[in-house]
Amino acid sequence: MPLYEYVCEEDEEVIELLRPMREADAPVEDPAGRGRKFARVQSTFGVGGKPANGASLPVRGGQCGCGRPHGSCGT
């Protein structure tokens, strides 16, 4: 099951949940029981280390999932 991140709209607390892909955008119950609303965050990940052939790894940072700088694609 994938790990998804959700951010609270009120205080920006971030939580992580393991859930099936079909439930990725389903409402999230406030773990603190305060009735806060959480929205899914488009997560990114990085890979560290060195490939076996010694080639360098591509580095992406500060970009949208489309590969453009944040805001360039309108998301």
Short summary:
This protein has no helices and three strands. It has strands at residues 3-8, 14-18, 38-41.
Fold and architecture overview:
1% of the residues are buried. The chain has a domain at 3-41. The protein is elongated, with a radius of gyration of 16 Å. 0% of the residues lie in helices and 20% in strands. The protein is built from no helices and three strands. With 75 residues, it is mainly β.
Write the layout of secondary structure elements.
Elements: E1 3-8, E2 14-18, E3 38-41
Antiparallel strand pairs: 1-2, 1-3
Beta-strand percentage range = 15-25%
Q: Helicity, in percent?
A: under 10%
Please mark out the parts with pLDDT under 50 across 5 or more consecutive residues, or reply none: none
Largest beta-sheet details = 3 strands, antiparallel
For the termini, the CA-CA separation is: 26 Å
Structural class: mainly beta
Q: What strand line-up does the widest sheet have? A: 2-1-3
List keywords for this structure.
75 residues; three-stranded antiparallel β-sheet; mainly beta; 0% helix; 20% strand; single chain
